[in-house]
């Protein structure tokens, strides 16, 4: 694959001079496979951001990171290339630390309103200035808009989705 | 200061460098992880100037500020315009608290999880795109931008992993990866199963066992539940497990049943555990018995759950497919296995004459098993057991058995609960009362080793059954006769050696339940017979008799004295044959006669 090779080499180069890091969005379609059987989820998709060779996501345990494809959900069903970022890793780490202390504390997780997709969106913005596809972020509000969603709301408030991963950042740990 | 004279290049150039110059003021949102502020700044300011404003607003030092916009780090010398920062846009800010170290590798290694393929399988077919990056900081191989997240790759990865990864990555990680892959793609499971390599591996129970045992989790489990190692050491079982594993639908069903059963059994405190242990070792004969005879219910329930509840995590569900509930009731199905080490399970179906089966374990088991022992399957098992003393002995001598007995003995509550639950007693509260009272005695008896030894006597067992049957018939035929018969029956019919329980279970009538330590003839076939009092009396007598700890080992001759006389009076002069017949039939004259006639000696 010429394209693949080109991509690869670009990334290599970019990585080599340390100035550019590829950012991807991993999208997990939770409605298929064993995931569906194990955890009936209404939120159709779980997303995470992959950068610096790590996968970052927000779940019930707070902001977590793992080896890409390293959560129990395995490899993502689809990915979106968000481009590159100049943000170096350590800066990103700091950024995440701040996030973790503020808006992305574990208890802040809300299945619909403040979930992994919210996180992915924000991080994507931070890193690349681009947003994640809107159909993902719009999903919750769509559901909430239905009477069904409204009825379920109290229940959903307590639900969190945390695919277990290798470990959480700074020892947040997985389930 | 909104001098809008953009026409003069000089001025413009000036303003570019001059924060306070004439350019438009724009409002830029500066967003930190915690905070958000709107900052008004000249459109053509430099980043440095911007930072100055920011540091005032956020009360941080300028050199702590890192601005990010559109994925780019804004350097001091840049201008806002250079980056396309316009009115209303948002710029991200990170206020550095720590020293900017050149490589955050310390954090990295901490958080980059121990992915199995990390670093190792750099070149392997690796579905994970951002792949094997050990160190993020620009070193090392890059993430492959395109990833083939398909199953084949996944599977290929597995084999690749097993080649490469096994060495360095530990088994756990490998397993985890496998698990993950499996989770994401159910078809993969079946694909894996179909892989000839896997199949051959699976059909080799030894290998599987080794693999399983190697798993530290498994080891823990094994420590906790010795039955598991038992199970693992049994190639037959392993094979069954593999079969099951191959068929996910089966497995699912199995698990479901297990859960159901589990909840059933859970309600019985203490007994459950004991039963569990007991079951494990008996599972084989039970299975074979159940397979043809019965099916789902209590049986596979028991079969399914016991130590599998502990084993589940290790994926060694080894329960066979649910037995066919409508299979031909074939007592000979019980042939296959015998409990631990008994030589030959006599595939004897001869005892098919008696639909009743001695239930040596008494009510306790039956109710524990939700009527397990009442099931036809169990009955056939019991038959088999009675045929094969060895089996019985093994079963009884197994530690779990003792445990159960002990726990029952120590725990009269359980026992009584068990009794009350027993459907046998369901219709007869009086009997229950009786039982409860007699409980301690009964339990004593259970522990009597002599009882145990008698249990292993096939003839005794058969005798029990016969007697039981006889009594039953009598009961229905001549209810009034019972009371008077009893004492006589007792003397004659009881082989003397105390038996733990001679409960005969007949499918037709509510099983007579005699936990009577006595041989069988539980005098209580049906309460409906209207001989409640009689039954109770009988029971009591029996119990007392055995409470007395008698060991009247009477010879058959003595025992069947009466019958022998009768037989000879009828013209059966061959005393030996008579005796044999009587023994075989447990003192039942009619049956003995038939037997004698059937064999037609002289």
UniProtKB/TrEMBL annotation, chain A:
Annotated keywords: Hydrolase, Protease
Keyword Nuclease: no
Domain PPPDE residue range list: 21-157
GO molecular function, one term: palmitoyl-(protein) hydrolase activity
EC numbers for this chain: 3.1.2.22
Catalysed reactions, semicolon-separated: S-hexadecanoyl-L-cysteinyl-[protein] + H2O = L-cysteinyl-[protein] + hexadecanoate + H(+)
Superkingdom of origin: Eukaryota
Keyword set includes tRNA processing: no
Annotated SMART domains: DUF862 (SM01179)
Listed GO biological process terms: protein modification by small protein removal; proteolysis
One Pfam family, short name: Peptidase_C97
InterPro entries on file: PPPDE_dom, PPPDE_sf
Homology family: Belongs to the DeSI family.
Alphabetized PANTHER family for the sequence: DESUMOYLATING ISOPEPTIDASE (PTHR12378), DESUMOYLATING ISOPEPTIDASE 1 (PTHR12378:SF7)
Protein name as annotated: palmitoyl-protein hydrolase
Automatic annotation (TrEMBL), chain B:
Gene Ontology BP annotations: autophagy; DNA repair; ubiquitin-dependent protein catabolic process
Region named Disordered: 100-157, 294-377, 497-534
Gene3D superfamilies for this protein: 1.10.260.100, DNA helicase RuvA subunit, C-terminal domain, Phosphatidylinositol 3-kinase Catalytic Subunit, Chain A, domain 1
Taxonomic superkingdom: Eukaryota
Compositionally biased region (Low complexity): 100-119, 331-354
Gene Ontology CC terms: autophagosome; chromosome; cytoplasmic vesicle; cytosol; endoplasmic reticulum; nucleus; perinuclear region of cytoplasm
Keyword Nucleus in record: yes
Residue span, UBA domain: 554-599
The Ubiquitin-like domain, residue ranges: 26-96
Name the UniProt record assigns to this protein: Ubiquilin-4
Organism: Cyprinus carpio carpio
Lineage of the species this protein comes from: Eukaryota, Metazoa, Chordata, Craniata, Vertebrata
């Amino acid at each position: 694959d010429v394209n693949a090779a080109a991509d690869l080499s670009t990334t290599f180069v970019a990585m080599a001079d340390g100035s550019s890091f590829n950012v991807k969005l991993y999208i997990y379609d939770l409605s298929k496979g064993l995931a569906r059987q194990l955890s009936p989820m209404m939120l159709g998709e779980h997303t995470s951001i992959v950068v610096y060779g790590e996968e970052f996501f927000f779940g019930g345990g707070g902001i977590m990171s793992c080896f890409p494809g390293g959560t129990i959900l395995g490899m993502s069903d689809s990915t979106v290339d968000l481009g590159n970022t100049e943000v170096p890793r350590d800066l990103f780490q700091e950024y995440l630390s701040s996030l973790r202390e503020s808006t992305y504390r574990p208890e802040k997780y809300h299945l619909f309103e403040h979930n992994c997709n919210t996180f992915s969106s924000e991080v994507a913005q931070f890193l690349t200035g681009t947003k994640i596809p809107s159909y993902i972020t719009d999903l919750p509000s769509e559901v909430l808009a239905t009477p069904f969603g409204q009825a379920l709301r109290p229940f959903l408030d307590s639900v969190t989705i945390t695919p277990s991963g290798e470990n959480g950042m700074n020892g947040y740990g997985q389930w | 200061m909104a001098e809008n004279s953009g026409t003069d290049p000089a001025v413009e150039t000036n303003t570019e460098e001059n924060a306070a110059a004439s350019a438009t003021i724009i409002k830029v949102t500066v967003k930190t992880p915690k905070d958000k502020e709107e900052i008004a700044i000249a459109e053509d300011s430099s980043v440095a100037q911007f930072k100055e404003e920011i540091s005032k607003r956020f009360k941080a030092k300028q050199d702590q500020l890192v601005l990010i916009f559109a994925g780019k780090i804004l350097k001091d010398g840049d201008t806002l315009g250079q980056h396309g920062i316009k009115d209303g846009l948002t710029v991200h800010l990170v206020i550095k608290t720590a020293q900017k170290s050149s490589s955050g590798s310390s954090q990295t290694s901490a958080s980059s999880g121990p992915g199995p393929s990390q670093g190792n399988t750099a070149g392997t077919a690796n579905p994970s795109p951002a792949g094997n990056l050990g160190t993020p900081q620009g070193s090392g191989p890059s993430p492959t931008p395109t990833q083939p997240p398909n199953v084949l790759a996944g599977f290929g990865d597995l084999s690749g992993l097993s080649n490469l990864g096994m060495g360095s990555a530990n088994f756990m990680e490998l397993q985890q990866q496998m698990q993950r892959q499996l989770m994401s793609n159910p078809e993969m499971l079946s694909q894996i199963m179909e892989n000839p390599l896997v199949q051959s591996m699976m059909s080799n129970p030894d290998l599987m066992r080794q693999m399983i045992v190697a798993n530290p989790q498994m080891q823990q489990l094994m420590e906790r539940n010795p039955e598991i190692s038992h199970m693992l050491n049994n190639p037959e079982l392993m094979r069954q497990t593999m079969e099951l594993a191959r068929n996910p639908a089966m497995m699912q069903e199995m698990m479901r049943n297990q859960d159901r059963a589990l909840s059933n059994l859970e309600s019985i405190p203490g007994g459950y555990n004991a039963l569990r242990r007991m079951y494990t070792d008996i599972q084989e004969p039970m299975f074979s018995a159940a397979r043809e005879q019965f099916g789902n219910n209590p049986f596979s329930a028991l079969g399914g759950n016991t130590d599998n509840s502990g084993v589940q995590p290790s994926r060694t569900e080894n329960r066979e497919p649910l037995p066919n509930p409508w299979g031909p009731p074939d007592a000979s199905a019980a042939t296959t296995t015998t409990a631990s080490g008994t030589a030959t399970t006599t595939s004897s179906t001869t005892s098919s004459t008696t639909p009743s089966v001695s239930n040596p374990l008494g009510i306790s088991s039956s109710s524990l098993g939700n009527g397990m022992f009442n099931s036809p399957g169990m009955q056939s098992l019991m038959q088999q057991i009675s045929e094969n003393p060895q089996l019985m002995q093994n079963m009884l001598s197994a530690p779990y058995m003792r445990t159960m007995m002990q726990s029952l003995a120590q725990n009269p509550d359980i026992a009584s609960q068990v009794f009350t639950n027993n459907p046998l007693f369901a219709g007869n509260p009086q009997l229950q009362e009786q039982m409860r009272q007699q409980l301690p005695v009964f339990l004593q008896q259970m522990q009597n080793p002599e009882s145990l030894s008698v249990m292993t006597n096939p003839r005794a067992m058969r005798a029990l059954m016969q007697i039981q049957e006889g009594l039953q018939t009598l009961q229905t035929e001549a209810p009034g006769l019972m009371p008077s018969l009893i004492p006589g029956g007792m003397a004659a019919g009881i082989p003397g050696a105390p038996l733990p329980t001679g409960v005969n279970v007949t499918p037709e009538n509510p099983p007579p339940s005699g936990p009577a330590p006595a041989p069988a003839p539980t005098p209580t076939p049906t309460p409906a017979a209207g001989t409640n009092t009689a039954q109770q009396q009988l029971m009591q007598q029996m119990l007392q008799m055995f409470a007395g700890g008698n060991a009247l080992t009477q010879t058959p001759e003595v025992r069947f004295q009466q019958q022998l006389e009768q037989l000879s009076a009828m013209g059966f002069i061959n005393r030996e044959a008579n005796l044999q017949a009587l023994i075989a039939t447990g003192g039942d004259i009619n049956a003995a006669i038939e037997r004698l006639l059937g064999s037609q000696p002289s």
